[in-house]
Fold this protein.
Amino acid sequence: MKKRRQRSDVPPDSIQGVSMQTLDKELSRHVEIARTKPVSVDKYGVPWVWIVSHPLWMQADHLKSFVPEGHGLVNLREAIDSTLAYEGLLMNELTRQCTSGLDARMVTRAWLLQVVYSLSDPRRVREGLVYNMLWRWFVGYQLRSEQLPEIEPFVHDLNRVSAHPHVIDIVHRSLNNGAMLHADTEEFRINRGLLHALRTQHVDLPVRLDEPVVGGLSGERGGRSMAR
């Protein structure tokens, strides 16, 4: 007798299991069951497909369910969205220059992730979006099932957007507006050195001389190395 594989760590009372043979005979009954709980359809003793009602699927697919109340990224998302609300013309123009299919607002939030986590390579942001549903929500996705952009266009767009002086200022203002981010926490390692270096390259942006420089970056070359 073939040993039945474990489905997952999903609580057994939250799903309904049925074989293909049984489903053929009792389809309508199991579709009715699927209105209240997912039905796993087995083939040769192994889970094959699922029958899920639309409300249950939307509940499981919606990224909002992965957002813990009070998390630092929730406050930061509110801060940057408040700033982006006044930058419609700029964001629309940058969106036309993007090649990944993402809105420039999403790319700007992705770059903010790179800054607050001090990631040296934008590919690591793209990699994180594969498995970190909180990051996906922060960037601006609504559903887990939404397709992510290809890596190279994503990196191209992030480099282009992060090189714009006003985007640099938007990110800087968002961090200043997020009071809990003024001091680094165990999770956030804000690369203020990068922002300082980038802002000093653009004479039209006000630079605070007392702004802390953290992260080991110095000069133009060091500042841009993180965003490429």
Observations:
- Confidence is low (pLDDT under 50) at residues 1-10, 207-228.
- The longest helix spans residues 72-84.
- Strands lie at 16-19, 39-43, 46-51.
